[in-house]
Amino acid sequence: MGESLSECSARSGRRSPGAPSRWARERQLFSVLVLVLASGRVEAACVDPATVAHSTVGITRHFDGKEQEARPGALGVRGTGWFLAPTSLVTVEHVAASMNLSDQDWKPVDFRQGESTQSIPARIRHLAGSSKERIAVLELQTAPADAQGFALRMEPLVPGEPLVSLAYPDSRLRVAGGRFVQYGDGDRFAGTALLEMYDGNDRLVLDHGASGAPVLDCAGRVVAVVSNLFTTTMQFMSRVIRVSTAWGSANVVSVPVPVLKDLSRIE
C-alpha cells in the first residue's frame, strides 16, 4: 500500500494518569492474540537480501504548496520502487498517481537506498496491465549511483513456490518471505497474483509504503509487484486494530510482471 504523509503524523496526545496500566493490560492481551493467530506459520526465504537490496529503493514525493492546498493535510506520498534499468524505475500505478506524476512534467522524487537519499526528477513513461491495478514504469532524468536493474521472470508461478520481497514501509528496508498461492480470478482479482508474505509473525510487513515492491523467485528474478494487502479491522478493548488474514491463506495482492514483456525487450 502507498503511504500518505500527513500533518497528523506529527501530533501526539497526553495520556490520563490511569492509562499506562490499562494499555499495559491490552498490550499483553494483544500479544497473546498475535501468538494464537501466528500458529502454523511456515518459514520461507531463498534469496540473500544483501545481493538484491541495491536494486530496490524507497520513493517519496513531497507536495509543493499548490498541491498541499488541493489536498489539505497531505504533505506527500511514500512507496517502493525497483530498477528495470538505470533510468527506469518500476512501481504500481496507484503510487505514481498519488504522487501526482504525469507522462509530461518532470517532478522531483526522493530515492532512499539504505541510509542514503537523493532527489531525481521523474515522470511516467509507461503503464502496463489490464487489471484494475497496473504497473507504472517511471523514467528518471538521471541514473542514481550504482543503480542495477532486476531480471524479469515470464514463466508462470507454481502454487506453493517460495518467494521473497524487499520493501520500504516507513522508509525502512524490510524483507518478507512467503509463497505464491494462486492467480486471481473474477472481476475483482483478475490479472493479479495472490501471495502469502510475512516477516516472522508479522503478516503486515508489506503495509503502507510497500506498494511497488518487487517480489522475487529463488533465482532473484522479479515475478510480481506488490499492490495491496488483505486486512480487516476489529475492536479490541478500547481501540480498533487491523488484522491480516489467517495463516495458510493469501494476504498480499500483486501484479505479475509478464505485462512488462515487450518493454523489457526494449530495455
How would you characterize the overall build of this protein?
The structure is a single chain. This protein is α+β, with helices and mostly antiparallel strands and 267 residues long. The protein folds into 2 domains: 43-50 and 151-258, Beta Barrel (Thrombin, subunit H), CATH 2.40.10.10; 52-149 and 262-266, Trypsin-like serine proteases (Thrombin, subunit H, Beta Barrel). It is built from 5 helices and 15 strands. The protein has helices spanning 19-37, 65-70, 93-98, 186-189, 261-266, and strands spanning 3-6, 56-62, 74-85, 88-92, 107-113, 116-128, 135-140, 162-167, 174-183, 193-198, 214-216, 222-229, 231-236, 239-244, 252-256. A 6-stranded antiparallel beta barrel has the order 2-3-4-7-6-5. β13 and β14 form a beta hairpin. 36% of the residues are buried.
CATH fold field value of the largest domain: Thrombin, subunit H
The sequence of SSEs as H and E is EHEHEEHEEEEEHEEEEEEH
The averaged pLDDT comes out at: 83
Shape designation: globular
Approximately how much beta-strand content do the residues carry? Answer: 35-45%
- How many domains, as an integer? 2
